[in-house]
Automatic annotation (TrEMBL):
Keywords attached to this entry: Calcium, Hydrolase, Metal-binding, Signal
Top-level taxon of the source organism: Bacteria
Name of the protein: Arylsulfatase
Family as reported in the entry's similarity comment: Belongs to the sulfatase family.
Gene for this chain: atsA_1
Lineage: Bacteria, Pseudomonadati, Verrucomicrobiota, Verrucomicrobiia, Verrucomicrobiales
One Pfam family recorded for the sequence: Sulfatase
SUPFAM superfamilies: Alkaline phosphatase-like
Domain Sulfatase N-terminal residue range list: 23-337
Length: 492
């Protein structure tokens, strides 16, 4: 009995030491948040002191991208570390009659970051929005490497759930009571419970906190709305209140980590799943042109913050292009897990063993620490078939919309993409087209489903419409959002 107790103690100490060598990993995702809607990214209307503090204590990335300009494919890329185009998840989820259930989600041969971290000894959890498939049980988060899941499987939800009307489940079981009235607050309570429960355990933890804020429906608490009486546009006022609420909630999570003595042992990444919706939520992506659904910068470039006190430099601004696909290899490196292999441009992987170990991302830790000074990526690619495709290579970007002429921009000189250089620089245009064709030709799958035809017309309209390219003042009453009133780019 003595030796059994001694062995148990030794194993416990060994596990504790093993866990101490591995940081906790917290991935916080906003939904449809504008590039210019954090005060640390220039907003004059939305104070976000908690996210500002996170940025001040870590690395704020000016040229952070996601792999798609709409929710579901962006999330598929985020959780796999690979361009979602490779496994056919190119458009927002739909289920055509001809499509088999097992194809409407992330390919089951493709492991997620949760699978890889679970293999590395982590307890894994997701709280919030899934939106990556629910047609078969195997697509459920609990079957994709997540030990714990609380949230909704689909893409949207009312912020005022009731017991009778909600889409929320806890590890596959319908919820039986409403813990707190407002959904963003509820997700935060669940996140803090997960953190506290697992911080007392012997294993490190990974939590994917997938807020649906500030995605529609536009619903905010009265006390949050009361902080923005100076904003006359009703939709914009609600959006700002939702942003404020999310920032406050993130502050409680950081406070919980501090209370538990876990903040310096936690790598936190915050970003949005795509650019803000200018029409629906009245987000602001300034100085980027475009918005959600567009391959202009306003649809793809998003605020990205990495914070790991004591390990990453404090108060750093990083301006090289990075992408959400980098999170998987960065987290694995922090966890001391086997590094995935970079998939070279033009290479096609079809064998399960290659798919399981490949990534299009890069471990960013040595770049943030200054140990590597070259750009992490030579090229970044995007495509939504019949809508648009694009490539960024250094400072240059080619945007090839489905319903218009090619557009070539130098983002260093023209971050708002106003000056199309395609006609005056045919050599650069041909160079980037060649890279885009090489990438497209190496994709392992065609899209498994495609957006409804109505989106093609909308995408053309979105690509051609005018945008405001400056941050409005705190009480600016101009209409920056409607198609009818915004006849030209507002730059002053």
């Amino acid at each position: 009995m003595f030796f059994r107790s001694l062995l148990t103690l030794l194993l416990s100490l060994s596990a504790s030491l093993f866990a101490a060598d591995k940081p906790n990993l917290l991935l916080i995702l906003a939904d449809d948040m504008g590039y210019g809607d954090l005060s640390c990214y220039g907003s004059k209307q939305v104070p976000t002191p908690n996210l500002d503090k996170l940025a001040a204590n870590g690395v704020r990335c000016t040229d952070g991208y996601v792999s798609a300009s709409v929710c579901a494919p962006s999330r598929a890329g985020l959780l796999t570390g690979r361009y979602q185009n490779r496994f056919g998840f190119e458009h927002n989820l739909s289920h055509p009659k001809y499509m088999k259930d097992e194809h409407v989600g992330i390919d089951l041969k493709q492991p997620l970051i949760s699978n890889k971290l679970k293999d590395a000894g982590y307890t894994t959890g997701i709280i919030g929005k899934w939106h990556l498939g629910e047609a078969i049980p195997e697509f459920h988060p609990n079957q994709r490497g997540f030990d714990h899941f609380f949230g909704m499987l689909g893409g949207g939800h009312s912020y005022w759930p009731t017991v009778e009307k909600n889409k929320l489940t806890l590890n596959g079981e319908k919820i039986k009571e409403v813990r707190t009235p407002y959904l963003t607050d509820w997700f935060t309570l669940e996140a803090n419970d997960f953190i506290e429960r697992n911080s007392k355990a012997e294993k490190p933890w990974f939590l994917y906190l997938s807020y649906n804020t500030p995605h529609s429906p536009m619903q905010a608490k009265d006390e949050d709305l009361a902080k923005f009486p100076h904003i006359k546009d009703k939709t914009r006022r609600i959006y700002c209140a939702m942003q404020h609420n999310m920032d406050t909630n993130i502050g409680t999570i950081v406070s919980k980590l501090e209370e538990l003595g876990q903040l310096e042992n936690t790598l936190i990444v915050f970003l949005s799943d795509n650019g803000g919706s200018v029409e629906v939520s009245h987000a602001i992506n300034a100085p980027c042109r475009g918005g959600k659904g567009s391959n202009l910068e306003g649809g793809l470039r998003i605020p990205t913050i990495y914070s790991w006190p004591g390990t990453l430099p404090k108060g750093t601004t990083y301006s090289q292009p990075i992408i959400s696909l980098d999170i998987l290899p960065t987290f694995l490196a922090a966890a001391g897990a086997p590094a995935p292999e970079a998939q070279p441009l033009g290479t096609s992987y079809k064998k399960a063993k290659d798919i399981a170990t490949a990534t299009d991302g890069v471990n960013l830790l040595p770049y943030f620490k200054g140990e590597k000074t070259e750009p992490p990526h030579e090229n970044l690619f995007w495509r939504m078939t019949l809508r648009a495709k694009s490539v960024r290579s250094g400072d240059w970007k080619l945007l090839d919309p489905a319903h218009g002429e090619p557009q070539l921009y130098n983002l260093k000189d023209d971050p708002s993409e106003l000056n199309n250089l395609a006609a005056s620089n045919p050599t650069k245009l041909a160079e980037l087209r060649s890279k885009l064709v090489t990438w497209e030709g190496s994709l392992e799958s065609n899209p498994h489903w495609i957006s409804a035809p109505t989106w093609y017309k909308y995408n053309k309209k979105l690509n051609e419409r005018k945008f405001m390219l400056i941050q409005p003042e705190k009480d600016d009453e101009r209409d920056f959002w409607s198609f009818d009133s915004l006849k030209e780019h507002i730059t002053n």
